[in-house]
Amino acid sequence: MGELAADCSPEMLIALKWFAVYTLPRHEKRVGQYLSQREIEFYLPLYSVRRKWSDGSTVTLDLPLFPGYLFVHIDRKERVRVLEVPGVLTFVGGTGRKPASLPEAEIDALRTGLSLRRAEPHPLMTVGQRARILSGALAGMEGIVVRQKNSLRVVLTMDLIQQSVAVEVNGTELEILDSAAPGSASGSATWPGLRTAQASHGSNRRPVSP
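The chain above was modelled as a monomer; its predicted structure follows.
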């Protein structure tokens, strides 16, 4: 969940960029509260999980999708204000003392799309069968296909913070972009409705199974 900053002029809006911030463990929500109090726009993606306590009761918790990270929408000159927030450790990425900004479109896609799909943290993945989400929430984003029980998921990775998140998809919403990496599981069967780049765009890439 994010908080919007106060109204800004068009010139200021152009100068605002998204940056990833690294926080103390389990301090993401607290940092978000401090940022809100200081009227600094931020985005803290959450996911819901059910937990059972020792007394048998069950509760639903909203936990950070990227543990230890949140995103701020600021001008570079405001970095000091963010670093002064209790629980903030540092900005992520970049060269020298300048943090790297994140693409506006990437954050916008996450803010609008994750609320419409079931998502959860996933171990970092860098190799495997790549696919593009063709329709629905997060359309256009690319990731690695994994199969869990009777469902398909696409693992999206934010390279800057080296964190992955898995979102549920239907086979009809996916287009396979390349074959599985050497040593990864593959086979002749395909998921029902799964499209390949070869079939839809005349590519020379080989269709493979999820």
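Residues 28-37 form the longest helix (10 residues).
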